[in-house]
Structures are given as structure tokens and as C-alpha cells.
Write a structure and sequence with these properties.
Helix content: 25-40%
Strand content: 25-35%
Radius of gyration: 20 Å
Largest sheet: 4 strands, mixed
Number of helices: 6
Length: about 230
């Protein structure tokens, strides 16, 4: 059950779970605030804790407000697009035939039928992004399965506004933000590791962060880099 706390102009979603400690988070891109508390935590106790962290919450939200955002894409020739953290120019070619996307060193070639709308061009690009991720993700999962001793039954790709990934530990499934295709590959690796570790350790406990440090010593730098990159223009 999700409850709401209202502290001034800040709204906080409160969820009770079988955890030992309170976990307060501010999520990109719009600074949504969530608080996970042990199941027996009274709402007034959660309120007092959140109030004590108001300064930190506002600082995090201010950082997200000031974070660079991508300009809305029109899917026209010479427009900038990113793939695995590298800048590419888009080349749009109208011709009869099945739509397709081909990438070379610095150019993404989008081939569409004459008169194809910007919305349809966006759908074609998104489908291509999904395929690129489907080509990359399974090998990363396999690598971490052997190192972590866990098994992922299924993964999902989806547009996500407030998270880079999520995990259902009970079902052994993970979800990944499709925007990761635009970020450096090592950041995708970091997010997959993060979510897969939640199968072993569902909460952000000290043990979870010990495991992160053991398997990815620079995880804090990766998280910072990911959260400082331009946000999608949604």
C-alpha cells in the first residue's frame, strides 16, 4: 500500500516493506520523492524523518531542475542523436521500401517511405533502439548471472520517467529504461548489475552496497555520471 505525505510543497510516496531501515530517494527527471519504511513504522515517524531531510530533498530536486535536457527531436537530416554515448548526425532518406535504420561511424541513416510523419519516424527509431538493446542486454545478464550466482527469468525494456531500471526480486525479473541505449555502454552494464543484485538483496541495505562495491568498484561514479547526463525531453 502506498501512502502520501505532504510537507509544504513536497509530496512523498510512502511504501512499507520488510526492510530494517528507512530509505528516502529523489528520482530523476522531475524530482519525485519516495520513502520506503519498515512495515511497522508509524506515518508520523516517517513524516518526522522526511522533515529532517527537507534540505537534502530540495537540493536534489534543484539539481534535477537544472539538469540539461535534450531538445525535442524532429527526426530530420543533420539532427543530433546519441547511441551508446556517442554523438551521431541523422540522415533521413525518403524512398519506397521497408523502413530501416543503419548506423555507421558517425551517422544514423533513417530510411523511410515518402511523406512519413515525424511521429512515425520516432516510432521507427524507437523500434530500432529496442532491437539494439535486445542485442546487448542478454550477454550482460549472462555475465552477471555467473558472477553473482543469480538467475534472471525475464527482462523487459520500457520508457521510464523516474528510474533507469527496476527489479521484481520475487519473480526474478528486471526492467530497463530504453533511454539507456543513448548512454555509454558501461552505464548499461552498471544498471543491469544494480537490478540483478536486487534479486539477492531486495533493498538498498549495507550488504547491497558492499556487493556493488565488490563487483563494480566505481559504481558511485557510474551513478553520478548517469544522473548528470541530459534527460529526455518528455
Amino acid at each position: 500500500m502506498v501512502e502520501k505525505l505532504e510537507i509544504g510543497d513536497i509530496s512523498i510516496e510512502v511504501t512499507r516493506k520488510a526492510v530494517k531501515n528507512v530509505h528516502l530517494s529523489v528520482h530523476p527527471p522531475d524530482g519525485q520523492v519516495t520513502l520506503v519504511a519498515p512495515t511497522d513504522t508509524r506515518l508520523e515517524v516517517a513524516h518526522a524523518y522526511a522533515t529532517s531531510r527537507l534540505g537534502w530533498i530540495r537540493k536534489q530536486q534543484e539539481q534535477f531542475r537544472n539538469q540539461a535536457r535534450e531538445a525535442p527531436r524532429r527526426y530530420v537530416t543533420r539532427e543530433t542523436h546519441y547511441l551508446w554515448g556517442r554523438r551521431h548526425l541523422l540522415s533521413v532518406v525518403e524512398r519506397d521500401g521497408k523502413p530501416e535504420v543503419i548506423v555507421d561511424h558517425r551517422t544514423i541513416h533513417l530510411r523511410v517511405r515518402p511523406g512519413t510523419s515525424a511521429a512515425t519516424r520516432a516510432e521507427i527509431m524507437h523500434a530500432w533502439h529496442l532491437q539494439v538493446l535486445h542485442d546487448a542486454v542478454p550477454a550482460i545478464i549472462t555475465k552477471w548471472e555467473s558472477k553473482l550466482g543469480v538467475s534472471v527469468k525475464r527482462y523487459f525494456l520500457q520508457r521510464m520517467k523516474t528510474k533507469w531500471g527496476s527489479c521484481n526480486a520475487a519473480r526474478k525479473t528486471i526492467r530497463l529504461n530504453t533511454e539507456l541505449v543513448k548512454k555509454p555502454r558501461d552505464l548499461l552494464d552498471y544498471v543491469v548489475l544494480h537490478e540483478m543484485l536486487h534479486i539477492r538483496e531486495p533493498t538498498h541495505s549495507p550488504r547491497f552496497f558492499d556487493l556493488m562495491a565488490k563487483n563494480c568498484p566505481n559504481w558511485a561514479e557510474a551513478r553520478l555520471e548517469l544522473n548528470e547526463l541530459p534527460l529526455p525531453a518528455w
